[in-house]
Amino acid sequence: MRSEFYQAYINSEAWHKLKERIIKQRGYLCQKCGANTVQLELHHLTYDRLGHELDTDLQLLCSWCHVQADQVRRAVNQAASEERITNARYYNAMDTYIRKVYGAHYVDRPRDYMIREFDKWLEEKEREDRGW
Question: Do 39 and 8 share a structural domain?
Answer without folding.
Answer: yes
